[in-house]
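Why run this: before we spend reagent on co-expression, it is cheaper to look at a predicted model of the complex and decide which construct boundaries make sense. The entries below are exactly what would go into the expression plan.
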Amino acid sequence: MIRPARMSRFDAVVLEQDRDRVVDALHENGIAQIEDQSQRLRGKEWSELARAGASERSSNASSRLLRVKWLHDFLSSATTQPPGKFDVLMQYLKPDIPTPKEIPKRGVFRMVDSLLAEAEPKIKLLEGKHSAIQSEKAKLQKTIDDAERIKGIPFDVSWLGESEYTLTEAGVISKEHLPDLKDLPGEVAIDSSGESAAILICYLKIDREAVSKQLRKTGFSQVLLSGSGTPAELIERSRSRLGELELNEKTLLAKISSTGKKYLDGLAACRELLEIEKARGEISSAFAKTEKTVLLSGFVPSGQAESLREIVKKSSSDRYYFAHSDADDAPVLQSNPRFLKPFEQLTEMFAVPKYNEIDPTFLLAPTFVIYYGLMLTDAVYGVILFALSVLLLKTYGKANKAAKDFSWVLIACAVSTIIFGVLTGGYLGDIMAYLFGANPADLALWVDPLTDPIVILKLAIIIGILHVDTGVFVSLLENLRQKNFRAAAVDNAVWFILQAGILMYYLGMRAGLVLMGISVLLLFYGYKVMGIMHITGFMGDILSYARLLALALATGGIAMTVNLLAKMVFAVPYVGIALAAVVLLVGHTFNFIMNALGSFIHSLRLHYVEFFGKFYSGGGSKFSPFRAERRLTKLEAR
Amino acid sequence: MVSEGAVLAALGAAIAVGGAGLASGMGAGISGAAGASVVADDPKKFGLAIIFQAIPQTQGFYGFLIGILILFGTGILGGAGVEVPIAVGLACVGAGLAVGISGFSAIGQGIVSGAAVSEAARRPGMFGKGMVFSVLPETQAIYGLLISILILFFTGVIGGAGMPDIPLAAGFAAIGAGLAVGLAGLSAIGQGIAAAAGVGATAEKPEAFGKSMVFSVLPETQAIYGLLISILILFFTGIIGGNYLPQMELPIGIAAIGAGMAVGFAGLSAIGQGIAAAAGAAATADKPHMFGKSMVFSVL
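The model came back. Tokens follow.
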């Protein structure tokens, strides 16, 4: 709890022939992080060994994965509708939690291949038809668009093009260029009923140069059409064909959809299996090998080192070498009791602890929750927050681990808010005063921040002193443990000496001045003139906790203002009650959101800046075990 | 018949709401512009943009809160018809200045949340960290709110204990306290600049988060000096605690205004410090060993 989990570095050697089975077992159990060996192999004593390289398993998996992905993507994109507004919300409220499909332990490729053999030709056929329809539709649409531009001229489109002596072209020019066509050598038909003019022009081949030069000047844009009949007829024919195609497409989509129902789940499961296979093939590039053996090495939580040995032993049929020893530096696995686990993400957001450093989660959790409650201080807001966090836990929290942890943090904060709300008499601000004539000051079990802010201010400053001192004390212990005496004196002890001095002086003891002097000298010894600045910094850290009061007042005060406004509009004749309801709803919703968010961030800030700043730096790398991520599949229990 | 005290109180409320509102508008404009470009890129990020845009709007609410408290406390609204002494009216002006001027921290906050929303849109992991950075320059507004509330409470405007007989000098001292915390609160603009650089550094290198935070809170020192001087003014003139010096002369009040302005305007140095700290955060993200050296530069 106080420090990250102890880690052991392990080395395991198994026969090349057992490699795949050992990798499978490690991946399923997922307790060890595998380290790349290439760095080690550079050492002289390791020259006999070579890097293993990815096994053919990964290329086998990759090629199949490509095909499976393609089929899966085609089926799902052709069958699913674009998500509506509420679908996105529903994803959170009713997350799709699949029931894992049981699959046999061996023969992933055989399974995938048999599915591919059955499904691939069918789906490819459907895809061929689908894309044929799509491209014909696009072509027809283009014909329609082109014909629309010149449909004002009644001619047969089969005239277009070359004959023995003449050329015929259709197209569009802007109306202001129409006069330029006057001296064109050839026959011109013009329809200027539309926005721009459609023209049909027929000229002798020998005039080609002259005509095209002149047309270019007018900005002529040619329309190419093929077939027969007038443009209007062409449009009609294309439209009816388009209608036919759309009908065809509908039946085809129905077919694709039913095929999708049949194969999508299987394909998704195969996709997951192949991803796992691929990872298993690729991991061996982290191994070292001799002719007949492979060496794999990495980190495992010390408590699980022996179970790792068992896994290697069993999967290699007892042909193995395994050794482990305590690591000096290792990836970090935070190990806190279950009720602290959800708070680990708050520590991690600042920085993952170093392996040998303290894991401050157990220090952060209780004060974080208390500060949150102190800043929100409203029982009704607390109940709302509680309901929302339980909702999050029961919906999206089921599908997402981070959301689940987060909702537990919020639940703790909500409980704390309710407690402080009851203590300070905050129920939607002072709404009880309007409903039952009970002022917050009467309801408060302890104190109402608006009538007596000084009590809370004093409390906030005392909390600040205790919290900052706790940070300094932890730093003192760490510095002493690492025999870092200078830092222990000028960074830590100095503050206790200073505070003791101030306290003694305050109590009327002159000796306090001596202690204060000593602390200033210590700071000067440690940091020269800059050291004196540290005193204001330290005071600033403590004063910063005054925000506990300010935010408590802000929540209650704004809620009070909302109630007041509601009362004012309530006096409006006839619609007053509705207006008041709207003001209350909107005002309190807004105040709740702003302050629930603000309390969280400010509580976090007090921990990150004022508290962690005293002792915690972090910067470790997170333990990431080699573990199969299974969502859609699970192994058959033999 | 409206008394001079009530006019002054109304002036205080006006400064609170007007100053903080103007500042919030400017801050929200800055973050909103960044938010708009994010939404233009990806309309699905609308919710994200709204959240970050809302951050610099809290100052407006603090101003509104103080404004309403003044108007109701002095009976201008609600029609309680309380006689407002001039000294209390002056104190209301002080409360207004504290929250109204410190509200300009919203500009600093707008700068950070603008940077944060762009990064959060690109990297989902930056949402939480961006939020933390964005909320840093709110400290100054909270200090302003705190001093406002203390002034109003001890001059009897809120709390319902009735208005004590306050010497005129105490009213001026309250203005001094308001100016100290208000003007020093402008350090938030410097903090905003530093924190925006912190957001950038963290987005590139997540492990730079802790050190960027240290740089970002440096310009807060000035705000803390302002808060400290404010509290000292309120304490030594007897506003806090209600033990007014019996023969407190007007010059003491005027001197308090001078002290407030001194620490307040000195607090503006934080803007320069913020720019230096921004460079420091960027340098440290590039080269971790620059941390110590950059710190020295930034503190200067």
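Chain A is about 60% helix and 10% strand. Residues 231-283 of chain A form the longest helix (53 residues). Bring this page to Monday's planning discussion.
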